[in-house]
C-alpha cells in the first residue's frame, strides 16, 4: 500500500494514484486488447468545441471531468476521443448503451429503415410499430400488454402518472426519496434528489416517503438484499423475518396515514434505485408496499428505465426480482441502445382511460425507433446479454466486495447483474460521504486510466459527496473486468 497518502487516497494510492506521475498513455497498459481502428477525427479543434459549448449550448448541461472529453467514435464497449484515445465505457452513456456502441445488428437495422421510411406519425399504420409492440409485450406477463411509445423516460413517467390519475380518478402519487424519474416539469415532482429541484412549483400531489436504504438508512442488516453482496451491518433476524423491512414498511404506512388522502392514484419506484447509486430495498419491501397501495385504490408503477432489458441478470425485468406485477411500467435508456425512444406498458383497462379524449405525440413509435427497439431485443437474446449480465455482474460484485473489505473508504458494494453501485465513505463506522475532492480525484484517475464510470448519490453535486461507480455494460466480458480488477 502506498504510504503517505491520505485516508481517501488509499484506494487511489494502490490502484490509481501511484500511476499518476506516468503519462496517460502508459497508464493504459492494462487495457484489454481491441482490434477496432477508429476513423481519423475531422471536425473542429478541441478549443473551438469548448467555445461553442460555452456560448451556444445550455449551461445547465454540465460536463464531466476537468478536461471534458471530446468523444468521436464508439465500437461496442469502447469509445474513442478526438485524439484516438480509447476508453472502456463502463457507464454506457448513462446506462443506455445496452448492447454496445454501434452494435452491428442494430446499426444495420437502422440503416435499412433509414433508406426506407423515417416517419409517418401514428395516424397511419406501418409494420415496425406493430412488430415491435408484439415483440416487446411477449416479454411481459399478463396483463401488461398495451404499449404507448414515447421519446424519453421523463415523458414515459409523465404519462404513467397521468394515466394513474385518470384511471383511478385520484390525484396523489407516492415516490421514494432519492429517486430520479425525470426532469420534465411533471416527472420532476416524482424526482426526489435535491440537486435536481428548482425553485419553481412542482410535485403538486406527489408525496415522498422514506427510502428503504439498508446501507445508509436507519435499518438494515446482512441479509436484506437480493444481491450476492450484503452490507457489513449485523443482522439478528431469524429465518424468514426482516426487521429492517418491517421498519421501512411502518414508515410507508406513516406516509399513507399522514401525507395523502384515503384513496390515492398510485406509487412509483424503480426496482433498484439507479441514479441514487444502485440502492436496493429489503427483500419483500415492494411486494408489501404494492399491497398497501392497492388497498388505497392506487396503481403501482415500476420505473424500469435502468433495471429493464436483462440488466439485473436474474430476470429480464427488475420488478420480477421482487415477485410483483406492476400495473404500469416505464422503459427508456437501454430500450434503444442510445436511440431516443421510450415506452409505457400497461393494462388494457388503464390504457383505455387515456382513450376517452385525444392524446398524441408526433415522434413516439416512429419507424426508426421501432426497428431499433426490435433489433435491440434481438441482440439481447442472440448475444445472451441477460446471462452475461448475471455472470459478469456476479463476478464483478464479488471482486468489488473484496475491495470493500480491504479499503476503509469503500463503504458498500451492491447491486444485481450489471447494475452495480459502490458507495464511498470517509470510514465504515461513520458512513460519512467521502468528500467531493477525493471522489473527484478517483474519478479523474479512472478516466486517465481509460475507464469511464458514472457518479450518483444524493450528495454528489454538493460539497460533501457520496459517489458511486455505476457499472453497467451488459456486453462487457468477464476477462475484461478481471484485467481491470487486477
Ligand atoms: C430511473 C430513471 N427514470 C427516468 C429517467 C428519465 O429518462 P430521460 O432522461 O430519458 O427523460 C431516468 C434518466 O436518467 C432514469 O434514470
From TrEMBL:
Keywords: Acetylation, Aminotransferase, Mitochondrion, Pyridoxal phosphate, Transferase, Transit peptide. It comes from the Eukaryota. The keyword Acetylation applies. The keyword Metal-binding does not apply. Pfam families: Aminotran_3. GO terms for molecular function: (R)-3-amino-2-methylpropionate-pyruvate transaminase activity; alanine-glyoxylate transaminase activity; beta-alanine:pyruvate transaminase activity; pyridoxal phosphate binding. InterPro entries: Aminotrans_3, Aminotrans_3_PPA_site, PyrdxlP-dep_Trfase, PyrdxlP-dep_Trfase_major, PyrdxlP-dep_Trfase_small. Gene3D superfamilies: Aspartate Aminotransferase, domain 1, Type I PLP-dependent aspartate aminotransferase-like (Major domain). Its cofactor is pyridoxal 5'-phosphate. Coiled coil: none annotated. It is found in: Mitochondrion. It catalyses: oxaloacetate + L-alanine = L-aspartate + pyruvate; N(omega),N('omega)-dimethyl-L-arginine + glyoxylate = 5-(3,3'-dimethylguanidino)-2-oxopentanoate + glycine; 2-oxohexanoate + N(omega),N(omega)-dimethyl-L-arginine = L-2-aminohexanoate + 5-(3,3-dimethylguanidino)-2-oxopentanoate; glyoxylate + L-alanine = glycine + pyruvate. Its EC number is 2.6.1.18, 2.6.1.40, 2.6.1.44. GO terms for cellular component: mitochondrion. Belongs to the class-III pyridoxal-phosphate-dependent aminotransferase family. Multifunctional aminotransferase with a broad substrate specificity. Catalyzes the conversion of glyoxylate to glycine using alanine as the amino donor. Catalyzes metabolism of not L- but the D-isomer of D-beta-aminoisobutyric acid to generate 2-methyl-3-oxopropanoate and alanine. Catalyzes the transfer of the amino group from beta-alanine to pyruvate to yield L-alanine and 3-oxopropanoate. Can metabolize NG-monomethyl-L-arginine (NMMA), asymmetric NG,NG-dimethyl-L-arginine (ADMA) and symmetric NG,N'G-dimethyl-L-arginine (SDMA). Homotetramer. This is Alanine--glyoxylate aminotransferase 2, mitochondrial. It comes from Gallus gallus.
Amino acid at each position: 500500500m502506498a504510504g503517505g497518502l491520505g485516508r481517501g487516497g488509499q484506494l487511489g494510492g494502490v490502484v490509481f494514484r501511484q500511476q499518476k506521475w506516468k503519462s496517460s498513455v502508459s497508464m493504459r497498459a492494462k487495457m484489454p486488447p481491441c482490434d477496432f481502428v477508429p476513423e481519423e477525427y475531422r471536425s473542429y479543434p478541441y478549443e473551438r468545441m469548448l467555445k461553442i459549448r460555452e456560448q451556444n449550448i445550455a449551461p445547465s448541461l454540465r460536463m464531466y471531468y476537468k478536461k471534458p472529453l471530446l468523444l468521436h467514435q464508439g465500437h461496442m464497449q469502447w469509445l474513442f476521443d478526438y485524439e484516438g484515445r480509447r476508453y472502456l465505457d463502463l457507464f454506457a452513456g448513462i446506462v443506455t448503451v445496452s448492447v454496445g456502441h454501434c452494435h452491428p445488428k442494430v446499426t444495420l437495422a437502422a440503416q435499412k429503415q433509414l433508406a426506407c421510411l423515417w416517419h409517418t406519425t401514428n395516424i397511419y399504420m406501418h409494420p415496425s410499430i406493430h412488430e415491435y409492440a408484439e415483440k416487446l409485450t411477449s416479454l411481459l406477463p399478463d396483463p401488461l400488454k398495451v404499449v404507448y411509445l414515447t421519446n424519453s423516460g421523463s415523458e414515459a413517467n409523465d404519462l404513467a402518472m397521468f394515466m394513474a390519475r385518470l384511471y383511478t380518478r385520484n390525484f396523489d402519487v407516492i415516490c421514494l426519496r432519492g429517486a430520479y424519474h425525470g426532469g420534465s416539469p411533471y416527472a420532476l415532482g416524482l424526482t426526489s434528489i435535491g440537486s435536481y429541484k428548482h425553485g419553481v412549483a412542482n410535485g403538486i400531489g406527489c408525496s415522498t416517503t422514506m427510502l428503504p436504504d439498508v446501507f445508509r438508512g436507519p435499518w438494515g442488516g446482512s441479509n436484506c438484499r437480493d444481491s450476492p453482496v450484503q452490507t457489513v451491518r449485523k443482522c439478528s433476524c431469524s429465518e424468514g423475518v426482516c426487521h429492517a423491512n418491517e421498519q421501512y414498511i411502518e414508515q410507508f404506512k406513516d406516509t399513507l396515514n399522514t401525507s395523502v388522502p384515503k384513496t390515492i392514484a398510485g406509487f412509483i419506484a424503480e426496482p433498484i434505485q439507479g441514479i441514487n447509486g444502485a440502492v436496493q430495498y429489503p427483500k419483500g419491501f415492494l411486494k408489501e408496499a404494492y399491497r398497501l397501495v392497492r388497498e388505497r385504490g392506487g396503481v403501482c408503477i415500476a420505473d424500469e428505465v435502468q433495471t429493464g432489458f436483462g440488466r439485473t441478470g436474474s430476470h429480464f425485468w427488475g420488478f420480477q426480482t421482487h415477485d410483483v406485477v406492476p400495473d404500469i411500467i416505464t422503459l427508456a435508456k437501454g430500450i434503444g441502445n442510445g436511440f431516443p425512444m421510450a415506452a409505457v406498458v400497461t393494462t388494457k383497462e388503464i390504457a383505455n382511460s387515456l382513450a376517452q379524449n385525444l392524446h398524441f405525440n408526433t415522434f413516439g413509435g416512429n419507424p426508426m425507433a421501432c426497428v431499433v427497439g426490435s433489433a435491440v431485443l434481438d441482440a439481447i437474446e442472440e448475444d445472451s446479454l441477460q446471462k452475461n449480465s448475471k455472470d459478469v455482474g456476479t463476478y464483478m460484485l464479488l471482486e468489488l466486495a473484496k475491495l470493500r473489505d480491504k479499503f476503509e473508504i469503500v463503504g458498500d458494494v451492491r447491486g444485481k447483474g450489471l447494475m452495480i453501485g459502490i458507495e464511498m465513505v470517509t470510514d465504515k463506522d461513520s458512513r460519512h460521504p467521502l468528500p467531493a475532492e477525493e471522489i473527484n480525484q478517483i474519478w479523474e484517475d479512472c478516466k486517465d486510466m481509460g475507464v469511464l464510470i458514472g457518479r450518483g448519490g444524493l450528495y454528489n453535486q454538493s460539497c460533501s459527496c457520496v459517489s458511486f461507480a455505476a457499472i453497467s455494460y451488459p456486453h462487457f466480458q468477464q476477462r475484461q473486468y478481471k484485467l481491470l480488477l487486477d
